[in-house]
Amino acid sequence: MASAIGTAVHNSVEDLCNIDLSGRDGEETGWLPPTANAILEKQWEQEKENFLGTPRHPRWKQEEFPRARKLLIGSLNILFAKARTGKIALSEVSIDIWREIQDMVLAAEGTLRTSCGRLMGRLDLLVSDYDE
Fold first, then answer.
1. What are the tens digits of pLDDT across the range 43-54?
2. CA 68 to CA 130: how far, in whole Å?
3. Domain total in the chain
4. Is residue 63, in this structure, part of any structural domain at all?
5. In a domain? residue 114
6. pTM for this predicted structure
7. The domain containing residue 33 runs over which residues?
8. Tens digit of pLDDT for each residue in 87-107?
């Protein structure tokens, strides 16, 4: 169950980092909480389907969804900290702020390889680190 929660949260952050916001008003706020929740619900249902399709598993714990939501909010707050947006409520994140965050994301779920191809690794999220 812990793995299913982690995967749902991880995939939700990835989907949010890749969301298409073209044509949206840059000053729009209040969009992130319902969007994040809808994406998490979609990922949650996908993980539930995978979980229940696997033989020899314990029961699905629907009551863990609020925990998954808290973990998603925590993950987004880490992303805000990396983007140096300061402490900001999800409901106050404008489309323009999110576009800036998307610009900082170099890769969401990627593979890094050395030029010789002998060493490689997977990464969840690679973010530019801007300084003065």
1. 999 999 998 888
2. 29
3. 1
4. yes
5. no
6. 0.82
7. 2-105
8. 889 999 999 999 988 988 877
- DSSP assignment of 30-98 equals S-HHHHHHHHHHHHHHHHHHHHHTSSS-----GGGHHHHHHHHHHHHHHHHHHHT--S--GGG--HHHH
Enumerate the β-bridge partners of residue 120.
113
Please say whether the beta carbons of 32 and 98 come within 8 A.
yes
Q: Are 77 and 90 in contact (CB under 8 A)?
A: no
- Residues 80 and 83: their CA atoms lie apart, in Å, by 5
10 belongs to a structural domain: yes
- Asked if the structure places residue 54 within a domain, the reply is yes
Q: Strand, helix or coil at 125? A: strand
